[in-house]
Design goal:
Strand content of chain B: under 5%
Distance between the termini of chain B: 42 Å
Helix content of chain A: 40-55%
Shape of chain B: globular
Distance between the termini of chain A: 61 Å
Number of strands of chain A: 14
Oligomer: heterodimer
Radius of gyration of chain B: 14 Å
Strand content of chain A: 5-15%
Largest sheet of chain A: 6 strands, mixed
Radius of gyration of chain A: 24 Å
Helix content of chain B: 55-70%
Order of helices and strands of chain B: HHHH
Shape of chain A: globular
Number of helices of chain B: 4
Structural class of chain A: alpha/beta
Chain lengths: ~525, ~120
């Protein structure tokens, strides 16, 4: 029986259906963890709420917007300086966070007046920002404040502003995934189709499910620009509010994180006939294949191939330097949702690492189908693990590193397992060819950091060696490498810049081609 | 490489399940459509038959199909030694297998949700 029972969860028997070992020759039709269900009482989940999924994941990466939480100030705490979805407008959306500061008196008497006052005050405080998203919270949902009516009142009084209302209270789903769904549908219902854009190219896409973590979106936009493809809107990383209102005019929706944004792609396909192309943006081969697919769609695949050839030649020797040193290292791939399947196969194929476990905090069974299909046999797949299960898995699987969020990551450190932040990254961007090498470098730095050797020693019981001197990562990583690999003249460590976005932001591109197709007809 | 038809289907299945995403849309009706259109076009491409790419929808299916057909040819050199009838049989078997893995045999309880 492939279902796995954690010793620590024997007192919660329902948990057994949420963990599966991928056995030899077994497929996703033999066993699949349950998913996207309410967390079982007694299990300390690592999930976020539906408000968090709507606002903190999808809404707030929009860069030219005042993001206002209508609720207690605590609901908005996580937005300030804890997210890394940067933007090229001086990170307005990260620097400033807004809440209506609901208190007990508002619960009793209502908070609509307070809301209106806060909206007006926020626009006055930021006169260069004319767009706002308001996020309902548990408190404002339970008292029934009519946020749409207040927003409309303000828009009537201030005709130069536009306001989007997202009703996704914390209790609106089993996890943050419920919020992803709600904000997708709210956006297409309220805003898509309300702006007619300037189409500058014959090749126009929406780039969907990309949140510009440490600049990922900007890296990808560079590739699309080099191909002559206009990215009309990015949903939502580094995205502009009004561009996202014009999503209906793109020729193709290129979907990266299907977990958080497939809903809007599906709706755009239904309502406007725009096809949905699912892609992988991580790893040399998957990214190359993805760009080539976009190129094929428009008949410009040669442009994608030119990028693939150039980037591969530049960065492959560096990726292979890290691969030689990471091969056989065990990793628990424990992100939130989509990265378990974006990374499961490619860190094995391109970095030589063995994925011993995949988990998802808020993924659905569809995400597990993808992740389990892509990881190797023997991996343990866990849905919505609790902290004790995570500890037990690390103790039994003995990974060299885990990729996860900051909360479980800190738990891992306590048992001396290094972790990389799978949500916000360490030294990103991690997309693009260069980004993938930066990811490999971060893994290498974590796995071979001498600090972990020191941390493994418990001064309370272990003998502290006094005959060993200074150790470096290189001494640790190269100790068992054959000479021909250690001294390979082709392979080299990362040679990119500390900030690889700086030059990207200054880059200029030739004008897009427009009406070439129409003239040809 | 020689081997039984089942082995050959398994090799193609492995490529799809590891490298592709199109087969995992979120609802039964959607998966059926994806499987039918993309695998159908891949079959046509491998048999050298014309494929319609008139509409954006068709073109999007074709993009995945053409990528897959190229990958199959590179990874499975034995395809070149197969007759048209054998390739047709292979692709029919693959279609049946992918439909089983993603639809009829799937344990995903959300597949039949009425809403997207």
């Amino acid at each position: 029986m492939p279902y796995h029972e954690f010793k620590c969860s024997r007192c919660i028997p329902e948990r057994k259906q949420h963990a599966v070992f991928k056995g030899k020759g077994e497929t996703i039709t033999d066993a699949l963890p349950l998913g996207y269900l309410n967390t079982i009482p007694g299990s300390i989940s690592e999930r976020g709420c539906a408000y968090c999924g709507a606002k903190h994941v999808i809404g707030t990466p929009m860069k030219d917007v005042i993001h206002l939480s209508h609720g207690p100030i605590g609901c908005t705490y996580d937005t300030w300086q804890t997210k890394r979805y940067i933007s090229d407008n001086d990170n307005f959306q990260i620097k400033y966070t807004f809440a209506t500061d609901m208190k007990e008196k508002h619960i009793v008497f209502g908070a609509e007046k307070q809301l209106k006052q806060c909206i007006v005050e926020a626009f006055k405080a930021c006169p260069h920002i004319k767009r706002m998203s308001i996020y309902q919270t548990c408190a404002s949902a339970l008292i029934g404040d009519d946020i749409e009516a207040i927003a409309q009142e303000v828009m009537d009084e201030m005709p130069d502003v536009d306001i989007f209302v997202c009703n996704s209270p914390g209790f609106g789903g089993p996890s943050q995934s419920g919020g992803h769904h709600k904000i997708n549908i709210a956006w297409i219902n309220q805003k898509v189709g309300t702006v007619e854009p300037d189409l500058l190219s014959d090749y126009v896409i929406n780039y969907v499910g990309e949140y510009n973590i440490q600049g990922d979106q900007e890296v990808m936009i560079d590739f699309f620009n080099r191909m002559g493809v206009q990215v009309l809107a990015t949903f939502t990383g580094n995205g502009r509010y009004d561009d996202l209102r014009a999503m209906h005019k793109a020729h193709l929706n290129v979907l990266e994180c299907a977990r958080s944004a497939e809903y809007i792609c599906n709706e755009l396909r239904k309502r406007y006939g725009t096809p949905r192309l699912d892609i992988d943006g991580f790893g040399f081969e998957p990214l190359g294949s993805s760009l080539r697919k976009v190129g094929l769609f428009f008949g410009i695949e040669d442009r994608a191939q030119a990028i693939i050839d150039e980037e591969t030649a530049r960065w492959k020797p560096e990726l292979d330097w890290y691969k030689a040193r990471l091969t056989g290292r065990k990793v628990c791939l424990w992100p939130g949702g989509s990265k378990l399947w974006h990374w499961a196969h490619v860190i094995h194929d391109e970095m030589g690492m063995d994925v011993v476990s995949v988990y998802t905090k808020f993924g659905h069974q569809g995400d597990m189908e993808k992740g389990i299909s892509r990881c190797e046999e023997g991996a343990l797949a866990i849905d919505d693990p609790n902290e004790l299960e995570g500890l037990e898995a690390m103790e039994t699987l003995t990974p060299d590193i885990i990729f996860t969020g900051k909360r479980p990551g800190e738990v891992a450190k306590k048992i001396r397992v290094p972790y990389l932040n799978a949500h916000a990254y360490h030294n990103g961007p991690w997309k693009g060819w260069e980004g993938w090498v930066r990811f490999a470098r971060d893994i290498y730095n974590a796995v071979y950091s001498p600090i972990h050797r020191l941390a493994l020693l418990d001064i309370g019981k272990d003998e502290i060696p006094t005959d060993k001197g200074f150790e470096t990562q290189r001494m640790l990583s190269d100790a068992d490498l054959p000479d021909e690999v250690r001294n390979d003249p082709v392979l080299r460590e990362y040679t990119g810049k500390y900030n690889c976005l700086k030059d990207l932001r200054k880059k200029t591109y030739p004008p897009f081609e427009r009406n070439v197709l129409a003239e040809a007809v | 490489m020689s081997g039984s038809m089942q082995d050959k289907i398994a090799q193609l299945e492995n490529y799809i399940m590891k490298k592709c995403l199109w087969q995992f849309h979120s609802r039964t009706w959607d998966r059926k459509r994806q499987n039918e259109r993309i695998l159908g076009m891949t079959r046509q491409l491998l048999l050298g038959e014309p494929v319609s790419t008139e509409t954006p929808e068709e073109r999007c299916y074709w993009v995945d199909a053409v990528t897959m057909a190229e990958a199959f040819k590179v990874r499975c050199p034995w395809l070149a030694d197969m007759s048209r009838e054998e390739i047709a049989g292979l692709m029919d078997g693959l279609y049946e297998r992918i439909d089983f893995l993603t639809v009829t045999g799937s344990l995903n309880q959300e597949l039949n949700d009425q809403h997207y």
